[in-house]
Amino acid sequence: MGFSFECQATCSKTGARAGIWHTPHGIVETPRFMPVGTLATVKGLTPAQIQTTGAQMILANTYHLHLQPGESIVEKAGGLHEFMAWKGPILTDSGGFQVFSLSELRKISESGVTFRSPRDGRIIEITPERSIQIQNALGADVIMAFDECPPAQASHAHVAAATERTYRWLERCISAHQRSQDQALFGIVQGGIYPDLRHKAAESLVKLDLPGYAIGGVSVGEEPQLIHEIVRMTAPLLPSEKPRYLMGVGTYREMAVAIASGIDLFDCVIPTRFGRHGTAMVGGERFNLKNAQFREDFTPLDPTCPCYTCANFSRAYLNHLVKSREMLGYILLSLHNITELVRFTQRIRESILCDRFVEEFGDLAGLSGIGD
């Protein structure tokens, strides 16, 4: 099976849509939240546990896997699907964001980026061609173009130069891609907080007729309102017959706003990061399970949640585990948090299918009054 995107329903009042995206390793029902498995593992959870959350597609990261264990090891294992025993679709980020945000020593040129490895200090160069070679070896269903991600407060001139370079790098990524039959290469719309640059970038990328498109460079330090404006402006510029992916976003409001604009896919590290810090996501709220109020609370985190955590354990028990720094506490919270975000996008999907998105999620998406 190759790649195809089928739109099943659209909201009559917004750009929200529900679809089915066919990939070589199965379908993804959109809109959908995707858990992040940076180093070929969603932290603290087994693939069997991830399946119970309702997740259909997960992420891994080119930068981190190149550093450890190295893409050659993954390729010898039969690719990421075999290596990590995840049978569903996988997406790999190009490593661009990590190169620009995590590396202490880096030098950007037209060729690519050189940086010092945080693991052993060696100097590494990643070019657009090298990023694609690594991702071809990793074998994910979806691979991302290598892009330059400027900081949130960068000037218009800085962002314009980075956006133009990102386009030139994309052309090189396309030329280097050797597995177009079983790996979909997505382009990334950059442009920072500047509408003219976003519009120009989207227009240029659409002409390349790629299998899918992502909006990058958001959630890197901007105010939420700016993120909303960028997404509302950019998403409708992308082809309706292709999947649209908003990178690095996974909060309720940001996802609801983006879905109203026509976004299909999301990823974020917060469900497992919160879990490792003793925080549960429950109905849009955040519960710090270290708090004394949960010590004698024998109710589940969320009585409506079908996850293993909520079906079997009380808030009191989770409070005990977290305060005791027991690993099981972090595992159970991560399992619940991923389930929560996947269920959130599933509920939105169901509302779109019956054309009740505005009635059920309009306030959260900032659409008050649109259906009156």
Plain-language structure description:
- With 372 residues, the chain is α/β, with parallel strands linked by helices.
- It has two domains: 30-267, Queuine tRNA-ribosyltransferase-like (TIM Barrel, Alpha-Beta Barrel), CATH 3.20.20; 269-364, no CATH class.
- The chain is built from 15 helices and 16 strands.
- The chain has helices spanning 47-52, 62-67, 71-76, 80-84, 96-102, 128-138, 156-176, 195-206, 224-234, 252-260, 270-276, 308-312, 315-323, 327-353, 357-361, and strands at 4-10, 17-23, 26-30, 32-35, 58-61, 90-93, 106-108, 113-116, 123-126, 142-144, 184-189, 212-215, 244-246, 265-268, 279-282, 285-288.
- The strands form four sheets. It has an eight-stranded parallel sheet with strand order 4-14-13-12-11-10-6-5. The chain has a three-stranded antiparallel sheet with strand order 1-2-3.
What is the element layout, followed by pairings?
Layout: E1 4-10, E2 17-23, E3 26-30, E4 32-35, H1 47-52, E5 58-61, H2 62-67, H3 71-76, H4 80-84, E6 90-93, H5 96-102, E7 106-108, E8 113-116, E9 123-126, H6 128-138, E10 142-144, H7 156-176, E11 184-189, H8 195-206, E12 212-215, H9 224-234, E13 244-246, H10 252-260, E14 265-268, H11 270-276, E15 279-282, E16 285-288, H12 308-312, H13 315-323, H14 327-353, H15 357-361
Parallel strand pairs: 4-14, 5-6, 6-10, 10-11, 11-12, 12-13, 13-14
Antiparallel strand pairs: 1-2, 2-3, 7-8, 8-9, 15-16
Helix pairs in contact: 6-7, 7-8, 9-10, 10-14, 11-14, 13-14
